[in-house]
Amino acid sequence: MNISYRVELTDEERNQLIQMTSKGKHSSRAIKRAHILLLADHHKHSHEQISERVSCGTATVYRVKREFVEQGLEVALNEGKRPGRSKILSANDEAKLVSIACTKPPEGRSRWTLSLLSDKLIALTDLDSVSLETIRTRLKSNELKPWQRKMWCIGNMTAEYIAQMEDILTLYSEEPDESNPVVNFDEAGKQLVDHVNQPIPMTSGQCEKVDYEYKRSGVANIFMFLDRHKGWRKAKPTWRKCATDFAECMKELVDIDYPNANKIRVVMDNFKTHSPGSLYKAFEPKEARRILNRLEFHYTPKHASWLNMAEIEIGTMSKQCLDRRIPNMDTLKAELQAWETARNEEKATIKWMFDVDAARTKLNRAYDKLRIPTNQN
Q1: Which residues partner with 160 through β-bridges?
Q2: b/e per residue, 231-263, with b = 16+ CB within 10 A?
Q3: Could you list the residue range(s) of the whole structural domain that residue 106 is in?
Q4: CB contact at 8 A, 225 and 234
Q5: Looking at residue 228, which CATH number applies to its domain?
Q6: Does 187 share its domain with 224?
Q7: What is the pLDDT of residues 323-367, one digit of tens each?
Q8: What contacts 356, CB < 8 A, 6 or more positions away?
Q9: Whole-model pTM?
Q10: Which phi and psi (to 5°) does residue 186 adopt?
Q11: In angstroms, what CA-CA distances link 221 with 1, 135, 224, 240, 268?
């Protein structure tokens, strides 16, 4: 028998639901049910109209109205939270789900999905079926996200690694010194890409449309300089990053960017061109020695790019400026100049929190392995 449930809210109930939907302090599910009841009050709207306005199925509308009439407002708003309701997965089933999610995905798949986990769990248990929502909530409660992956580089914590790391961290912990500034240096690549068909601009109700087809215009290199104490950075685009390009960067640093500095401490990685020899390849010996006398190189350990703050700034540059198609070198230079100027005017900087004491505490196992037993010859 098709029963029609009529919702008739009291003034108190109506005010409670209005407050729920306006303040947004409840779960999205409860707010959606509150909207359904408000729309259904005194049969103002049909099931189909409510379904369309709230974006749910007519079965949901029917169920909410039935629960309100038969069990009251609290139950209608909180279906699924009634005491005594048994869990869909037993403790053993949930343990099995966790175990599956922590294993390698099936052959031919790069990662687990909710559907794959559901199918695998049914195959390994007595369950006839399990919803994707159940899988999702159980993964969430166990803080598992098998569809995500983080990339990181494991450095070999040798004595040399730790010595170089502590050298950089000690440098970062010093008070700002205008006569002896600390400048981070790094480089990044940017593929220059132009449109084959021009994008269709965004209009009201329509996002910008960009054709997938494109044409390459080459690959540019971007040298990044960063002085976090001054809130200064410089992004210099070039076509190459060979020894002479590095040497020109160091010359600019000495003669243009810091002409009055006594000694410029440069933090960078161990890339093959990042060496004093590159300046002798680019300049006469006297000029190379003049520039090097104003510089002091500090190298990050191998596989420790996280120690170079210039890499953080490159990440910011990529998100704020380079995350789009840039057709040629002239456009790249202009866009980088605009981004650089705005960042420098803000004096945007990096608050570095990791120091030598923190390293010795967090990496204590690596430090302990370096100690030679006293009874060893």
Answers
A1: none
A2: ebbbbbbbeebebebbbbbbbebbeebbeebee
A3: 91-141
A4: yes
A5: 3.30.420.10
A6: yes
A7: 999 999 999 999 999 999 999 999 999 999 989 998 888 888 888
A8: 166, 169, 170, 173
A9: 0.63
A10: -160, 175
A11: 73, 45, 10, 6, 16
Q: Are residues 226 and 316 in the same domain?
A: yes
Per-residue pLDDT reduced to its tens digit, 313-322 = 999 999 999 9
Are 127 and 171 in the same domain? Answer: no
Domain-located, residue 45:
yes
**Per-residue b/e over 273-312, b at no fewer than 16 CB within 10 Å?**
bbbeebbbebbeeeebeebbebbeebbbbeebbebbbbbb
Range ranked top by mean pLDDT from 12-16, 87-91, 143-147: 12-16
Residues 183 and 313 both lie in one domain = yes
Specify the pLDDT at position 340: 95
Beta pairing class for 295-299 and 264-268:
parallel
> pLDDT tens, 162-208?
999 999 999 999 999 999 999 999 999 999 998 888 888 888 878 88
Q: Is residue 148 part of a domain?
A: no
Distance CA 249, CA 347 (A): 22
Co-location of 251 and 336 in the same domain:
yes
Q: Is 321 exposed, middle or buried (0-12, 13-18, 19+ CB in 10 A)?
A: buried
CB distance 117 to 71 below 8 Å = no
Residue 64 shares a structural domain with residue 108: no
Please give the full DSSP string across 54-107, using - where no structure is assigned: HTS-HHHHHHHHHHHHHH-HHHHHSTT--TTPPPSS-HHHHHHHHHHHTSPPPT
DSSP 128: S
Same domain for 106 and 60, yes or no, is: no
Q: How many domains does the chain have?
A: 3
Residues 132 and 270 placed together within one structural domain of the fold = no
- Assigned domain for 372 exists: no
Residue positions counted in the chain: 377
